[in-house]
What does this fold into?
Amino acid sequence: MEQVAETGEARAAVQGPRLAAEVVAMAAGAGIRLDYSPRSLALVDRIIDGLRRAHPPAAPATPSVPARPSGPAPHAGDARHTGAETPPSAPSTLTALGGYAGEVLRRHAGAVWVDFDAGQREVFGQPFGIRSTDGRVWNPLGKAVKRYQAGAGESLRLFYLAVAGHARA
It folds into this structure.
């Protein structure tokens, strides 16, 4: 069983930073400097807001995931499949922006990239996320999607503060 976890962590540890690097390159091409600082997550929030303005999300359909899934309660940043549609290029862009947020957490709050197990994948709708130093798993990829779908109430900057705060507790 430990071998599976190590393999998963190794895969997520490659994919998460790769997504973050894609975002940094994309932003640089637009004249935006992302430096992996917690403060830069406010810029990421604004990037998502710009996507939201340019391509407003469709009204959510009936949720395809129960409001209270079985198993452990998800933590902040659980973006479940709500049926809200995103523009064709947005899912990969939003996932990459979430990868950037996860990489900021890795670099500044001691989080590590981990593959989600089957139950976590079902709840979070993502293949991997991060584990904070207190052992909790978090979904930065889904949090970026939630920011797009729900707006300013789902801040990646505040998500960072919540995860970092839990890790210190």
About this structure: The CA atoms of residues 38 and 161 lie 8 Å apart. The chain has one domain: 2-57+82-168. The mean pLDDT is 82.
